[in-house]
Amino acid sequence: MVYCEDGRLLIDNNGLENNIRPFALGRKNWLVSASQRGVDASANLHSLIETAKASGLNEYAYLKHIFTELPKTQCVEDYEKLLP
Predict the structure, then answer these.
(1) Is 3:11 a contact under the CB 8 Å cutoff?
(2) Residues 2-12: pLDDT tens digits?
(3) Which of 3, 11, 44, 67 has its CA 20 to 30 A from that of 36?
């Protein structure tokens, strides 16, 4: 009922549900992964891509940047700089 008091809030969460739909479909594919590590890697990559999309970034350019800069990281601050 809060959305009735604040016009900035949406009445439904359809936008969010549409954003996570590819992840839900991906889960079916992860069931046939060869190992738990493969499942985790797929889920992490998908999460990274969806976060980049939600942040308004070009996913390909962001992943290219991360995979180029990640080997150069040496401390927590370096990792944090890579966040969208």
Answers:
(1) yes
(2) 778 888 877 88
(3) 67
Measured between alpha carbons, how far is residue 57 from residues 29, 32, 53, 65, 76 in Å?
26, 30, 6, 11, 22
Q: How confident is the model over 32-45, as pLDDT tens digits?
A: 667 788 778 877 88
Residue 12 DSSP one-character state: -
SS3 29: helix
CB 37 within 8 A of CB 22: no
CA distance 52 to 54: 5
> Which one-letter DSSP state was computed for residue 52?
H
Task: Decide: pTM greater than 0.90.
Answer: no
CA–CA gap between residue 28 and residue 39 (Å, rounded): 11
Q: Which residues contact 43 (CB under 8 A, 6 or more apart)?
A: 23, 26, 30
